[in-house]
Amino acid sequence: MDNNLIDSISSRIFAEIDKVRAEFKTDIIDYAGSNNTILLYCKLHEIFYYNHLFSKGQHIQNTSKLKYTISEIISWVSNEEFIEDKEIKEIDLYKLENKLESYFIRAIEVSQCSSAFLSNYANIFNVVEVDKNSVEFKYKSEDLEKFENINHLLITEYIQSNRKEFENKMRKGQHQKKYRNDPYKFNAESILNTDISLPDDYTMLDISIAQIKEFWLNIYILAYKTDKSNIDYAKSCAKSKGHISFNNGFKNIEIVELNFEEWPLEKLDEKSLNLLLEMFSYNGIKKEQTIHSSFITEPIIKLANGKYIIIPTTLFDFQIERYVLQVFDKHIGFKQKMKLKVQTDDYKREDIFTAKLNILFNDFKFKNDGLKIGSTDIDYLVYDENSETVVCFEAKWITEPYTPTEIVNKDRSLKKALEIQLPNYQRELESNTETLLKKAFGHHFNAKPKYFFYFALTNLSIGSGSLDRSIYKVINFRLLKKALRDTDYNILEASQKLNFDFYIQDYNKFIESIVSTSSCFGAEVRQPEFRYLGGYDLD
What pLDDT, in 10s, does the model give residues 353-401? Predict the structure, then answer.
């Protein structure tokens, strides 16, 4: 596509966005004040959310867009000069309601436009001209699109597996005394213990997982408690009036202000608490002027007056471990670039992987982690006596990426595994088999394997479509576990299934990539969007 045309369309759209922001400042921020504006929209988010759940005929039909819209509005407020807040009683909610809703819809449009045109810089899309006012973003290759779908499928399946585990805990817990005594705490503990797999003593930036759990425990307790109150009110409105009106919703729907003095803290000290608040709060501005901040990964809203608030329902699809590791990795990376000494237990991630593999291969006599070959180590290898098969793994713990750009950036370690490490494994092991296997399994090991397999093994996503998988495959732990279970732990048959992409070759039966069309200030933008069809299960 002619770059001049895409630049022309994007420039026109961004000029319209600037115009909307200026009008928003005049109509909303200048009238209500900076903090009040954010509070009003937090309430509006919950009104739309609960109306979607309990009422019919509401014009917001996709709740996933609500969070992105709030993120956009917070950035609008934060990038303007601070305006003192009016007294709430002085705000004419009837007068403001239509304008608030109108800008909410326009913010959805702005969010879609911004994400579409900024994604052009990720170098994974071609931009195709449909006509002078329409463009379509298409993946640069079939493999890029294929593995975006597959990664989305694997992540969705993992999230749903955790959700089922959480719901089972909730169902069983309702009969326990612990639940009856404090259902909100029980729910909060259940979701944390389901979502976080790292051990309590694992630390990053001198903060342990145990402290992180305590931090989120107190927040989730408040979220569940407030959500219950809001649900009761929403149901009563749906029954009597059909839906929650804005004026009544603003008075009765609650959001949560975090008052840390009231928290019963045992593990967190003031320094760690303040660091976690800074890391997981969002105000629409980059941190340290360079660290990208996102409301998706940092769901605590920081107001200009120093207060911290949460929108309860935004926490219920917050992927705790995934996003905690993402945020910590960004801050650790920033400090490392500044040549600062950084405390992190990242090296323990390999130990955690090894422990999981030891459990998975518990019944196998011959296994080894860390076999020295040449200038490197084979992370993990196992010999199956029944099928006379050796399988080797190069383990890669990936902090799960959120966007297509992040997935591409995470490819570097996988590319190294596929192009350097696994070929080294194969060359060394198959040219010096007897010596190396005796070194791995003991001097009494005399078997002569017939089959050898080599895999890059990740914790969840398996890299983008730009990787060359023609010789070696990238698999994740759940795929490996599934293959072993399905073959009654026959390593030859399991490895063959994984080598032939048995569990992902029919990915398009469970997920599809559709083209969504959005109107962006007079221009039409078409871009790929995932739609999970259901039915994919690795448990």
Answer: 899 999 999 999 999 999 998 878 999 999 999 999 999 999 998 877 6
Asked whether the beta carbons of 465 and 145 are under 8 A apart, the reply is: yes
| Alpha carbons 173 and 175: distance in angstroms, whole number | 5
In terms of Cβ atoms closer than 10 Å to its own Cβ (0-12, 13-18, 19+), residue 470 is exposed
- Two tokens, residue 124: 């994974």
Label residue 337 exposed, middle or buried (CB < 10 Å: 0-12, 13-18, 19+).
exposed
Query: 344 has which bridge partners?
Result: 204
* φ and ψ of 475, to 5 deg: -125, 165
Neighbours of 57 (CB within 10 A): 8
Distance in angstroms between the alpha carbons of the first and the last residue of the chain:
44
- At 257 the three-state DSSP class reads strand
Q: How far apart are CA 8 and CA 3, in angstroms?
A: 8
DSSP 418: I
Tokens of residue 75, six digits: 């950035």
What is the pLDDT confidence band of residue 247, given thresholds at 50, 70 and 90? confident
Query: Is 126 within 8 Å of 140 (Cβ atoms)?
Result: yes
* Residues 204/179, Cβ–Cβ less than 8 Å: no
Token reading at 400: 């799960």
Alpha-carbon distances, residue 502 vs 220, 279, 475 (angstroms): 39, 40, 11
Can you tell me the distance from the alpha carbon of 517 to that of 529, in angstroms, rounded to the nearest whole number?
10
User: What ranges in 57-181 are assigned the alpha helix state H?
Assistant: 64-78, 93-118, 142-173, 177-181
Cα 245 from Cα 51, distance rounded (Å) = 9
- Tracing tokens 């007294």 back to the chain, one arrives at 87
Q: What is the pLDDT of residues 120-140, one digit of tens each?
A: 555 678 877 777 778 788 888
Neighbours of 405 (CB within 10 A): 16
Token couple for 267: 């593990």
Do the Cβ atoms of 434 and 447 come closer than 8 Å? no
pLDDT per position as a tens digit, 509-528: 999 888 888 777 777 888 88
Distances (CA, A) of 506 to 125, 178, 446, 499, 510: 24, 44, 40, 14, 8
Smallest CA-to-CA distance from 463 within 372, 533, 398, 536 is with 398
How high is the pLDDT of residue 311? 97
CA distance 90 to 440: 76
Phi/psi for 491 (5° steps) reads -65, -35
User: Which is it for strands 376-384 and 389-396: parallel, antiparallel or unpaired?
Assistant: antiparallel
Evaluate whether 99 touches 508 at the Cβ level (below 8 Å). no
Query: What average pLDDT does the segment 252-278 reach?
Result: 93
Q: Kindly compute the dihedral angle of the four CA atoms of residues 356, 357, 360, 366, in this order, to the nearest 10 degrees.
A: -150
pLDDT at 246: 87
| CA distance linking residue 202 with residue 184, whole number of Å | 26
